[in-house]
Amino acid sequence: MSFTPGAEFGKANQEVVAGTLLTLARENKNVLVVTSDSRGSGKLMPYAAAVPDQLIEVGIAEQNLVGVAAGLASAGKTVYAVSPASFLTARALEQIKNDVCYSDQPVKLIGISAGVSYGALGSTHHAIHDIAVLRAINNITIIVPADNLETTEAIKAAAQMSHPVYIRFGKRPMPHLHPSGSPFEVGKALKIRDGRDIAFVATGETVYPALKAAEEMEQSGYSCRVISMHTIKPLDIEAVIRAAEECRAIVTVEEHRTAGGLGEACAAILMEANMQVPFKIVGIPDEYTMTGNQLEIFAHYGLTAPGLIRTAITLLEGNTG
Amino acid sequence: MTDDEVKIKSIYYRKKLLKYIKMANAGHTGGSLSCVDILNVLYNRILNVTPETFNDPGRDRYIQSKGHSVEALYVVLADRGFFPEEELETFYGYGSDYTGHPTRKVKGIEHNTGGLGHGLAFSVGVALAGQLDHAAYRVFTLLGDGELAEGSNWESLMAAAHYHLDNLCVIVDRNALQLTGKTEEMCGLEPLAQKLEAFGQEVRMVDGHNITALTEVLGMLPFTAGKPSVVIAKTIKGKGISFMENNPKWHHGVPNDRQYEQAQQELETRLAEIKS
Q1: Quick one: A198 and A287 in the same domain?
Q2: Cβ–Cβ of B111/A74 closer than 8 Å?
């Protein structure tokens, strides 16, 4: 049976993470999940019930969460510190910088309900700064998986990593973007469809709207490439360069501020490679974020298929004059 | 080792840490002088760790949360054979591993510290791992008193009590001074022992310069089964050098040539007293 990317929905990535962690924990007693009153949000109730000795609760105390996780990792534990991305990467940023990254403790930082997943709860709960701040910190891999397969593989890959990693994702059920069994490699982008006019370089939950935009544009005769850039750091430089060489224009798409995220990382690569290509960064601009649920916020900032089509066509038509 | 022999080590540690601070023309002089007797007792009498066992999962851990007093740690580790003392001649220098705060690049150092309010959470994690593994090792962490204004410490104290970490010993270097001045004038800590007790810790007070008393209190761990132990070590910032004692100016003051000679002379006099 042929596989159509995006045709069927799977689970929320959060649920997939919890299931994968349980599998890992059952295989290895040294796997620990540390939470900051976040086992409910993280869908970790079944995990807590199944392997209670492998869950450490620190209460609503993210600084302590990360410090404790670093200490556990130093003593040989495989530690996943699970907390809402907003608090994990802002409240505990100094612990991430010093106790995890600088001290090179291989903690797996799991940012749940990332981006604007919390929607109408407002900006205190949004994590749209996390990629920017962590990009500026040495010795951490940043992964933003799009679908269930990428998420499962990222969580499994993290267990084997001997240096720090940050994995962030949201709450909504995600469509399957890759056939099961697809190879996943940290640092290597996945091409979901190929094309020569526009390349959508997207990450996390914005890959799906990019895919929908591409499908619709194809109906009007445009040939569209969609790349899931699941690893933001280290970035797949080759995939970005190839998109610039082979496509007429590039649109980057991210559930993050336009400052310091995927788009700027791609732009820097192209500038330094002396490559000129019509280029647009779609994300959340430097302003008080519009209120509303996640999809309303996406629509407001053009992170949905119609918005991305408008951006892409403007870029392409501008290019052809 | 007799008490006198340990006391003599303290004099040499002071002489050496001043030497390397003088060479580098930088360092945290006052705080290193206030905690060096504690480190002396830990490394020469209490900790079950040597250069040979430093990678052994069962070793005792020492985590220095007040990372700025790294000079005291460096001279004690060098004396215990973790690295050749001559390497300290590069202290503070370009390309040196001997930076102004501890890092794991230096053998004997468990954790990179320097930002305050970090060492205790890390120590709680190490102690928790020990508890989960039914390991016999103990975790010691040294905090500055000014550092206790960092709220993260209190998160960690709550967790230490919650998990009954009686393999954890927190030592507070209570010299009552911080960079700007007296701790009680910055953001008062007292009544400190009662606060710590209210957070579920078993607390003991000790003279942080009395080798015998330090040995005794650190030899009684845990103070109560099922509770973390806290030692409030009453110390004097700049201890051992008359003109540095209790003067916040020496937080990171470096002696000039005349002051350096006087400091070394005072230590020589003290050495002669102990030896006689």
Answers
A1: yes
A2: yes
In a domain, residue A34? The reply is: yes
Is domain B3-275 given the CATH code 1.10.555.10 in the classification?
A: no
A104 contacts in chain B (CB < 8 Å): 104
Cβ A67 vs Cβ A94: under 8 Å: no
Q: Which residues lie below 8 Å from residue A177, measured CB to CB, with a gap of 6+?
A: A5, A6, A146, A147, A149, A150, A190, A192, A207, A208, A211, A228
The dihedral through the CA atoms of B164, A39, A228, A298 has a sign that is negative
Probe site for chain B from A74, A87, A104 (most B CB atoms < 10 A): A74
- For A297, the domain range is 190-314
How many domains, chain A? Answer: 2
User: Can you give the CATH number for the domain in which A265 is found?
Assistant: 3.40.50.920
Alpha-carbon span B208 to B109, nearest angstrom: 22
Give the ipTM: 0.96
User: Cα distance from B210 to chain A (closest Cα, Å)?
Assistant: 31
Chain segment B217-255, per-residue pLDDT in tens: 999 999 999 999 999 999 999 999 999 999 999 999 999
Q: In the listed set A129, A144, A175, which residue is the last one of a domain according to the structure?
A: A175
A320, pLDDT greater than 70: no
pTM score of the predicted model: 0.97
Q: Which residues on chain A are in Cβ contact (under 8 Å) with B133?
A: 75
Specify whether A170 is located in the same domain as A211.
Answer: no
Q: Are residues A211 and A159 in the same domain?
A: no
Are the Cβ atoms of A103 and B129 closer than 8 angstroms?
Answer: no
pLDDT, one tens digit per residue, over A143-179 is 999 999 999 999 999 999 999 999 999 999 999 999 9
pLDDT digits (tens, 9 = 90+) for A213-253: 999 999 999 999 999 999 999 999 999 999 999 999 999 99
